[in-house]
């Protein structure tokens, strides 16, 4: 069984890769509401307001369950809050 630390490193690498790809292309959702929630989450995340960022990214994935980037950043937020189980669930939902 893969340890949580190793799994966290794999997902962190995935996040870095995703962020790099995001700079080169548009978001994976066509929903304007989901995009607005994502942008609000990004703003909160940049100033380290994890509670607000979590709220907005959750809102984004509720609007569009397949919103790849929102799931990834939500998982990263959970990692920073030491909520490893929630992080794993968020990362897994991204792949479902």
Poorly predicted runs: none
Question: Number of helical runs?
Answer: 5
Average per-residue pLDDT, rounded, comes to 83
**Biggest sheet: strands, sense, closure?**
none
What is Rg?
Answer: 13 Å
Give me the secondary-structure category: mainly alpha
Shape: globular
Give the topology string: H per helix, E per strand. HHHHH
Could you give the count of β-strands?
0
| End-to-end Cα distance | 20 Å
Helical fraction: over 70%
What proportion strand? under 5%
Characterize the structure shown.
The protein has 96 residues and is mainly α. The chain is 78% helix and 0% strand. It has five helices and no strands. Helix 1 crosses helix 5 and helix 3 packs antiparallel against helix 4.
What is the topology?
Elements: H1 4-24, H2 32-46, H3 50-63, H4 68-80, H5 84-95
Short description:
With 96 residues, the chain is an all-alpha fold.
Short descriptors:
96 residues, mainly alpha
């Amino acid at each position: 069984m893969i340890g949580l630390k190793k799994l966290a490193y794999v997902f962190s690498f995935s996040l870095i890769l995703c962020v790099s790809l995001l700079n080169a292309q548009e978001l994976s959702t066509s929903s304007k509401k989901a995009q607005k929630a994502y942008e609000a989450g990004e703003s909160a995340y940049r100033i380290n307001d994890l509670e607000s960022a979590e709220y907005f990214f959750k809102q984004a994935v509720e609007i569009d369950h397949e919103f790849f980037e929102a799931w990834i950043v939500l998982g990263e937020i959970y990692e920073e809050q030491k909520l490893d189980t929630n992080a794993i669930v968020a990362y897994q939902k991204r792949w479902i």
